[in-house]
Design brief:
Helix content is 16%, strand content 29%. The protein starts with 13 loop residues before the first strand and ends in a 25-residue tail after the last helix. Strand 1 and strand 2 form a beta hairpin. By secondary structure, the protein is α+β, with helices and mostly antiparallel strands. The longest helix is centred in the C-terminal third of the chain and has 18 residues. The chain has one domain. The protein is built from 3 helices and 7 strands, in the order ββββααβββα.
């Protein structure tokens, strides 16, 4: 594909699997096309919450805790990624897009070596086998969003195949939850990356243009003091 010298290389979103101890990238998955949309959901962890508030929307928590937070908000991201081998004519693809799909699926699958080791320990009568630890997964969406995540959804829709039935086009619905300091042990590389992400959000919020109460149609600070009137 011909590129003009004055056209900057596009920023690509992607996923990076990192060794949590050394920080060394073990696998970098660049999304072929940047998704058109990114759906984000942010749920605050309120200290006063005590279960489902129900249809009426009134929780039964301690009212003295109504303005307190237990920790960082739980944030989930969802998007649809497209993979199309026909858009990469200069790259030989004897297996279609099997490799790209497998790379994504291995983010939520333990390796055969780790499974065999767990089976070996089980045969030796190990009383307790620790869950298999996966690499730290980072999702990148430009320089201002590099976050540790756990994949929660990976739904694949294969829509075209070559003569050997290798998939050559697919769309993937990917869901992930951002890992915060509440999810990771103190000193973990992922916890540090989350704090850097949150600090970036604080800097961006500080740059937002403020407005006075007049923009709300209120004179001065009317309605915000202790002597509010009755309607």
């Amino acid at each position: 594909m011909t590129r003009y010298a004055d056209v900057p290389e596009p920023i690509r979103s992607g996923i990076v699997a990192v060794d949590p101890g050394t920080g060394t990238p073990q696998r970098v998955i660049v999304l072929q096309f940047n998704p058109d949309t990114l759906e984000r959901s942010v749920a605050p962890q309120s200290a006063g919450d005590s279960g489902d508030a129900g249809a009426g929307g009134a929780g039964g928590g301690d009212r003295n805790e109504a303005l307190r937070l237990k920790g960082p908000a739980q944030e989930t991201w969802k998007f649809t990624a497209e993979i199309d081998a026909t858009d990469q004519f200069e790259i030989a693809a004897p297996d279609g897009i099997h490799p790209q799909l497998a790379a994504l699926e291995m983010l939520v699958q333990p390796t055969t070596a780790k499974l065999r080791e767990a089976m070996r320990l089980s045969r030796q009568g190990a009383i307790e086998i620790s869950p298999i630890e996966m690499p730290l997964t980072l999702f990148t969406w430009g320089s201002k969003r590099v976050v540790p995540v756990r994949l929660t959804e990976l739904s694949v829709n294969e829509s075209a195949f070559d003569v050997n039935l290798n998939p050559i086009r697919a769309s993937l619905a990917i869901g992930m939850r951002i890992l915060t300091v509440s999810d990771l042990p103190a000193g973990h590389r992922g916890a540090d990356l989350y704090l850097a992400h949150l600090a970036q959000k604080e800097r961006l919020a500080a740059g937002a243009r403020g407005a006075g109460t007049g923009a709300l149609g209120l004179a001065g600070a009317a309605g915000f003091g202790t002597g509010t009137g009755r309607g």
